[in-house]
Amino acid sequence: MSPFLDVKDLKIHFPTDDGLVRSVDGVTFGLERGKTLGIVGESGSGKSVTSLGILGLHKGRGANISGEIWLDGEELVGASQEHVRGLRGKKMAMIFQDPLSAMHPFYTVGDQIVEAYRIHNKVTKAVARKHAIDMLGRVGIPEPGRRVDSYPHEFSGGMRQRAMIAMALSCDPELLIADEPTTALDVTVQAQILDLMRDLQREFDSALIIITHDLGVVAELSDDILVMYGGKCIEYGSADDIFYRPEHPYTWGLLGSMPRLDREPTERLLPIKGSPPSLINVPPGCAFHPRCPYTERTGDKARTEAPALAETEGGHLVRCHMSPAERRDLWENEIKPVLETP
Amino acid sequence: MTEPQTQPATQTAPARQGEPLLSVRDLEKHFPVTKGLFQRQVGAVKAVDGISFDVYKGETLGLVGESGCGKSTTGRLVTRLLEPTGGQVMFEGQDITHMSQGRLRPLRRDMQMIFQDPYSSLNPRHTVGAIVGAPFRIQGVQTENGVKKAVQDLLELVGLNPEHYNRYPHEFSGGQRQRIGIARTLALKPKLIIADEPVSALDVSIQAQVVNLLEDLQNELDLTYVVIAHDLSVVRHISDRVAVMYLGKIVEIAERKSLYATPMHPYTNALLSAVPVPDPRGRAGRERIRLTGDVPSPLNPPPACRFHTRCWKAQEICKKVEPPLAELASGHRVACHFPENAPGAPEAPATGKDEPVNA
């Protein structure tokens, strides 16, 4: 039985004047209803393009897409644009990072929710409006009966993000993708929105993909986590795997780069040297090798041969040339003691 | 949480003797809101509304708060990029609050700023050499072996290749651009650097590089920083003392250790507990303080204690009497009638003067 959302070897390449941009270059994952997948990566790692590919929103830019996306037993990569358009909103929906630019400034919030609802449901305007008010109330907007006639600019950042969640959920989608849903928000409002998303997911039993660069946000919500680097998935496993038994040097680097409030402050952060690669010119072999402190351990292999995504144990996948035993040894004896200094 | 800290925390802090480098008293900035043909003033945005703090030589003061709390405005007032509407800014004992730009110019050598966005703060038409060398030109500073050599030394200092002297900003990544901005800031060997969200536009791995660079430079060049940021974990990492702002006021200021271990103001507590923790196993058992609603508009801030509309401890007195910023533990000042973690009687109003009004 394949999972509710099953993505296999997804590749999305954009031909440009400067060369082929391999934004997504082989991403595989599965997601069940009621579960949350966190996709983590730095800017330009391909995490947002992955989500656009699933929703079929990449096409207008002349991209080459290959691989398979199965949503509830239906293949989406080969499907017609009209068909995917019919699924969008109803079966799958998206929450964007910046609600001010994702919402139309000219229409009231209510009108926009009503429009989305009426595309997929044959109901009168009055019924749709009632539904919009109901949805706004459910995402915690005070006085929804009055605020339904407000314009997006009349809402605060947190309220706009709530309104956007209401719009995304208005047709009861089974797959919800949130791309950096809280990055533009203040920390106290972020906490409110994360709570809201957790509660609503439980209520609607939808599959949720949350895309972010913030490991804290991922840890709050995710069951599974996918770490992306240079368009590829470099580590994939349960939240426990990624936070307590990470095996890829890049994941170690991310954990070491992050100052943490839940531990005593370390003297220095442990950053990853260099900067993320350009997707036109991804380094040959392992894309991470120019920044990896352990390149020498595998000799020339890192520069010449691309490592495969291999299972270490129990669904924990890692793309690295080092052997699982070697990686575990490094984590236990070198990385973990430094990260967890009291 | 550890128990309330009563002993002086100064032993861990850098030398605090003598005059402060920067001293701010009751600083105010009210932006007028005008209406109609004659630009009649109908109100004021009280972006910064009476804040006081000192910055001592060699230390790092962190200014944290949510958007709209006035932290960036404070940075711009202190460097006189904005004209204060009230209060006083003293730099090295000189009153610079309303000093003319002409007289201020020589002082600009000693006081520099690092900006948030490394894309808009560098002129795209100038080479790195011209950008980093500009301070020498503007201030008419003579360099020993020519400007080019000085610039190359600076580039090396911040970890860039000195041979990139003739390149343009677009040829660099975000982290490298931020380093260029830092090199320009350091050109005239300033004493005080105001860094406004220096790392928030950068990726996580790059953020750590720049944070480490700032710390190294501070040790090497004996710099004093005021770091303005919204990220509480970054601020804890680099600051010696931290001030928390809410709606144009400082609500709590303390040594880093004592602020994070025993936060006294309810707002500080709420802020700290709202930060997502990268520890999935702990998420089930974590108690969170959830603030409801948004930050009120600074155009019409709530009277008395500005936090009372969102505070779970608020009582009548909070709506009527503004709590003073009182020193409750050594070096730990809080503006709250009912502080948490306070040594002594925690449930009594901190002011001592006003009797609590039973709600």
TrEMBL record, chain A:
Please state where this protein is localized.
Answer: Cell membrane
One Pfam match: oligo_HPY
User: What topology does it adopt in the membrane?
Assistant: Peripheral membrane protein
Q: Which residues form the ABC transporter domain?
A: 5-255
Q: Which residues form a coiled coil?
A: none
Keyword field: ATP-binding, Cell membrane, Membrane, Nucleotide-binding, Transport
Q: Which GO BP terms sit in this record?
A: peptide transport
Domain of life the protein comes from: Bacteria
Q: Indicate the principal place this protein occupies in or around the cell.
A: membrane
Named from the GO MF annotations, one term is:
ATP hydrolysis activity
Q: Does the keyword Transferase apply?
A: no
Record GO cellular component, one term: plasma membrane
Give the record's family classification: Belongs to the ABC transporter superfamily.
Q: What is this protein called?
A: ABC transporter ATP-binding protein
State the organism named in the record: Nonomuraea montanisoli
From TrEMBL, chain B:
Q: Where is this region: Disordered?
A: 1-20, 340-359
Q: Which GO terms describe its molecular function?
A: ATP binding; ATP hydrolysis activity
Q: Which residues form the signal peptide?
A: none
Q: Does the keyword Cell division apply?
A: no
Q: Name one GO biological process term.
A: transmembrane transport
Residue ranges constituting the ABC transporter domain according to the UniProt record: 22-272
- A Pfam family annotated for this chain is ABC_tran
Please provide the record's keywords in A-Z order. ATP-binding, Nucleotide-binding, Transport
The entry's family comment says: Belongs to the ABC transporter superfamily.
Q: Which NCBIfam families match?
A: oligo_HPY (TIGR01727), PRK11308.1 (NF008453)
What is this protein's record name? Dipeptide ABC transporter ATP-binding protein
